[in-house]
Design a protein that fits this description.
Elements lengths: L1 E5 L1 E3 L6 H10 L9 E9 L9 E3 L2 E4 L2 H9 L4 H8 L4 E11 L9 E8 L5 H19 L4 E9 L4 E8 L12 E9 L9 E2 L2
Antiparallel strand pairs: 1-5, 1-6, 2-4, 3-4, 3-5, 3-10, 6-8, 6-11, 7-9, 7-10, 8-9
């Protein structure tokens, strides 16, 4: 599993209905994309849920890096983003774990993202941190309203990513998340093909 996200930050006075219309008319294009676990078409609106910006920030879980690479350079969606907004930086993370929540059968309307720097320490400290985070993810995934919870890491910046899809809204107790999103559409053609649990 590989996680991918690009963030398109828009002007403060940008009409986010333009993005809503874009997703409504184009969002189904990846509903059967080979190798795609899920794509969450997520936005943040300035002044909503504490967001300081207007932003379109699609998030992906890919079954394998080849499918992700083909999407980025081989056509079939990303070229439309480049044509309309320029080429954004595509952040990507190595998958650690993914869990289905009790709301997996529902249509998610919210998402949360937490990025955590991984502190420098002894090798055993790093392994212990990952064990702790995987256990936390398992517990979180069992909460009411969770659709899917994923954990991944970036070995270049040494940071952990936790991304959670929620049926209706981000749980009140999620105080450590930095970004809260509205989900406009979810394409999940091969989500069940991504094995649950730890990926390493």
């Amino acid at each position: 599993m590989h996680a991918l996200q690009y963030e398109i930050t828009l002007p403060a006075d940008y009409d986010m209905e333009i993005i809503r219309e874009r997703v409504a008319t184009r969002g189904h294009a990846l509903d059967d994309r080979a190798g795609l676990g899920l794509k969450a078409y997520v936005i943040r609106e300035r002044g909503v849920d504490g967001s300081p910006v207007n932003q379109y920030a699609p998030f992906y879980l890919w079954q394998d890096v080849g499918a992700m690479g083909h999407f980025l350079v081989g056509g079939g969606g990303f070229q439309g983003i480049v044509a309309d907004f320029g080429r954004p930086a595509a952040q990507h993370w190595v998958g650690v774990a993914v869990e289905a929540g009790p709301a997996r059968g529902a249509v998610p309307r919210a998402a949360s993202r937490r990025l955590t720097p991984i502190p420098v320490g002894e090798p055993d400290d790093l392994a212990a941190l990952f064990e702790h985070e995987v256990a936390e993810l398992e517990g979180l995934a069992g909460r009411d309203g969770v659709h899917t919870a994923a954990l991944a890491f970036d070995p270049r910046r040494w940071e952990l990513l936790r991304f959670v899809l929620w049926e209706r809204e981000v749980a009140v107790g999620e105080v450590d998340v930095a970004e809260r999103y509205e989900v406009l559409h979810l394409s999940s053609p091969h989500l069940d093909g991504i094995p649950a649990g730890r990926h390493w």
